[in-house]
Design brief:
The structure holds 2 protein chains of 2 kinds. By secondary structure, chain A is α/β, with parallel strands linked by helices. Chain A folds into 2 domains: 196 residues, Rossmann fold, CATH 3.40.50; 126 residues, Response regulator (Rossmann fold), CATH 3.40.50.2300. Chain A has 13 helices and 14 strands. The N and C termini of chain A lie far apart (72 Å). Chain B has a domain of 196 residues. Chain B is 72% helix and 3% strand. In chain B, strand 1 and strand 2 form a beta hairpin. In chain B, helix 2 packs antiparallel against helix 3 and helix 2 crosses helix 9. Chain B is globular and about 60 Å long. In chain B, 53% of the residues are buried. Classes of the chains: A alpha/beta, B mainly alpha. Chains A and B meet through helix 8 and helix 9 of A and helix 1, helix 9 and helix 10 of B.
Chain lengths: 388, 290
Amino acid sequence: MKNKKLAFAAVAAVLSLSVAACGSDDDKASGGGDKGPLKVALMIPIADNPTDPDIFVDPAQMAVDEINAKGGIDGHKLELTQYDAGFTAEGALTAMQKAISDDVSFVVGLPIADQVLAVRPLLDRAKIPLLYLGGGFAAAYDPDSKTGSSEWSFRVGTPSEDTVNAGVQYAIDKLGLTNVGLLLRDDAGKDTSTQAAKDGAEAAGGTISEIQTIPLNSTDLTTQILAMKDVDAIFTTDFVPGITAALKEIDQQGMDVPLLTGQTGMTVYLGGTAGDLVKNMYSSAPCNMFDAYSETATKWVEDFQAKYDFMPDPNSSTTYDAFYLYKEAYEDAGGAGDELLKSLENLDYEGVCMHYKVDDQHFMGSTEVVEDFSGETPKTVATYDFSK
Amino acid sequence: MSIFVAVAFSGLALGSISALVALGFLVTYKATGVTNFAQGGLVTLGGYLGFSLVVSHGANWWLAYPVVLVVMFVAGVAMERVVHAPLRHRSELVVVIATLGVGLVIQAVLYEVYGAQARSLPQLVNGVVTVAGARISTYDLLILGVSAVAIALLTTMFNVTQLGRQFRAASLDPEVARLQGIPVERFAMFAFGLGGLLAGVAGLMLAPRAALDVNIGFTAMIAAFAAAVIGGFGRFSGVVVGALALGLVEQLGAQYLSSAYKEIYPFALMILVIAVAPRGILGSGSRVRV
């Protein structure tokens, strides 16, 4: 009899502990019944980053500090931790595994499509959102496919292909330059960028008449630029060294053609690597911090510059917006879990970079602006809306 | 014709820079038997030192550049003291790996100090000249001129001066050279210092051509190593011819075959030369011939 009582007591204890554990998991999902902190992972390349990691770190910290100063997200303070994901899928996997084991509530970062795809299984299991900052259609979410990114992945901005599309369209329909050459960085996005350029040319009534590739780490573009002698405009997807070399070579060859770039053109302008040659450059980007699209955005740029002493670029503004996008969705859902996912998918939010509205591929933005560098400061000269 | 001329001059300019780096390899190899894989890091260091003095501190180039070259010579000597001298009696492979490590350390330190963003070092001259209808950058012509002078001075030093004769003797047979009273160990320091100086010249010439970042020297080093192999790691003339050939093949191949495989052409040439002439274009079995 005594043994039976002991056995019942043991079973009751085990059951009680189980219920308590389940209860604390629910609390954790909602951020803690006692309003404990929400841990957020900033997952970016830190070592070996060709750009300064501070363009991501500083706006992230700014957003976290602001949100915490106003009481946090639904009463939960944010705790920000950086994870170095590098530029590889393996790096992203390692960083994400570490972040999940550290119990993060959401992740901001990962600039490469391959990384976003690689972490899909981890996100699906952990059911935490990833607000990723780079990549194009390769990282899109497709509910009808087993490929593609996790349903928990959301791109803070437009797909990178829209950047190419906008630049090519601008050259043709606004500058009247119908014959466009492509100077493509030799990377995984080359083919989709080519298709996006062709789509943009077709939409605007022009043609892509020459395509050249820039090998990685190349410092000389003589042959590529000479091949573009007969085009009216050149669009390049390369980064700072390639854009600088292209501007110098175009000038050296006496070619009267503008160079159109992605958002890295702003980095070339800010870094001064091409001097006055940037006056011959246009750049397409999610937003223009020198000519912000709203008073709120203009104010944010001033505050950011005052605090961090450098001009933010679109990466900075989308990083900052990511935290407020999560805040908006979390507070609307009342916590984490499937309701949070639905809330993210239905977001409609005015950020500092752009207006965010999520589409069925989980791209949160749909506009690209084109910037002209011929004046005293970069001016927005066109806006393209790719919303479906 | 004008396109051929434009592309050829561009190839010769790039080849000249490779020649400077490759001669740095050769000088060090002749003196010590070691291939110094820190040359890439030293090229980058030279570029950043030039940026620091000219851009960050506003110094005139005619004052800044000689200072950079002196610092680079000292850096090369310091490298010999730290990496080569203590490992002198170990296998050459160990020393080579150590030099590779030093190159990576230099790159990491530069990243920490200057950050990841690309920088700009102004060209000493701007503008173009027209040659056979082709627009040639005057800066590329300057690169050719500076490289030619550097190579001429180096060759003269090794062939005409007593220092050069002693260096050659020490390279041929260190033991006999010591018996003759030649300070063999000091020549190792001198060789590393000279390699550093040549890397500095290459860095100062290369950086203004595009944008300066921490990877700029690595790319130059790989091309220079291929040039040294093509030249045979023997004669200076072989290395110079190899480097110029490399630059021409890269640019002309990109122009007339496909730009997508631009980076492959020099190494295809290297493999071809090794297959046909394993000792290089003008190489020999001896380490002493200059």
